[in-house]
Structure prediction request, 384 residues.
Amino acid sequence: MNDATPQFSTRAIHAGQEFDPTTGAVIPPVYFTTTFVQDGIGGFRGGYEYARGGNPTRTALQELLASLEGGHAAFSFASGLAAEDALLRALLAPGQHVLMGNDVYGGTHRLVSRVFVPWGVSLSTVDMSDLDAVRAAIRPDATTVVWIETPSNPLMKITDIAAVAQIAHEVGATVVVDNTFASPYLQQPLALGADAVIHSTTKYLGGHSDVLGGAVILKEAELAEKVGFLQFGVGAVSGPMDAWLTIRGIKTLAVRMDRHTANAQAIAERLVGHPKLSAVYYPGLPDHPGHELAASQMSGFGGMLSVQLADGATARRFAESTKLFQLAESLGGVESLVCYPAEMTHASVRGTELEVSTSVVRLSVGIEDVGDLTDDLLATLDAL
Ligand code: PLP
Prediction:
């Protein structure tokens, strides 16, 4: 490699992944240890003392994530929500206000409304794709965190990260982007003006539906220090095997995302205008309201799409009848999944303004043969 910064696909395979200097093993070992021998009291080798504070396998994942998101530092956690919790604790104090997109992941809303609000934080939600509404919802004396999820879940709304960051920064708020749906391969929020990125690495980064995890990536050292302290001081760290599985998944992120995107685009185009569907939500479709913005802010439209059926009963039947698309929570794995958000991923926000229509079904398009996937969906629709 020359001195120029390697491209994304190269970094996905090599950043933080130097071969083992002792044996030459190409794949760095998984460090199954909780503690580290000291050369005399305080004589730490490589800074390692105890695994909650640091483990080389976790360090390798964190260096990789920081490189891919273009951040100052990254911290990995036992789940996406644990990552969100650490970041929010670092940013918030009682009396402060969180402004959140009105269609973020239900669990993110539940975390703030059921854990941080009782602690004295206030929360309001807004359509982040409406910049005037964002301006009006910001409380100049109290808004500390502006939380964006784009593309959003499950309607794939697109938020202008740079524009919202500018509005938020005018009042000194920190801009957080949940980059789970796009992955760093398709979207680089820190370069667009965000201060922090969070991931459920459970999804596209892990990529194989076999490991739960989360990450926070920070642009600046000051916030990184606070989150790093909370990772150690609160302790929801990722274990070495989880970190290693996530690293292994990330190596193929670029090729997987290309295939997820191509498959989702082809399926969305095939489903548009289908008589059993009243809407197809996919940012790669030219009439999607966020299409232009997504085209400029992302380098591809991703593998997630949602469809709207005639009513709740029909949508339920569709979600329960596909064969290749398996009915399950989660997304971003190589295998295609179908989800009924109203009673699955978004059940916790029923009765709030984040409630999802009962006639919407979400598809996580995998990397199987696109003809097989399309046939599965069309046959299921035909049979409804
Ligand atoms: N953010 C998004 C967009 C998600 O879809 C999820 C989980 O579904 C999370 C965050 C939470 O991550 P985890 O389930 O790993 O805690």
In short: The chain is about 35% helix and 15% strand. Residues 79-81, 105, 107-108, 149, 153, 178, 180-181, 200, 202, 212, 214 surround pyridoxal-5'-phosphate (CB under 6 Å). The two ends are 55 Å apart (CA to CA). The mean pLDDT is 96.
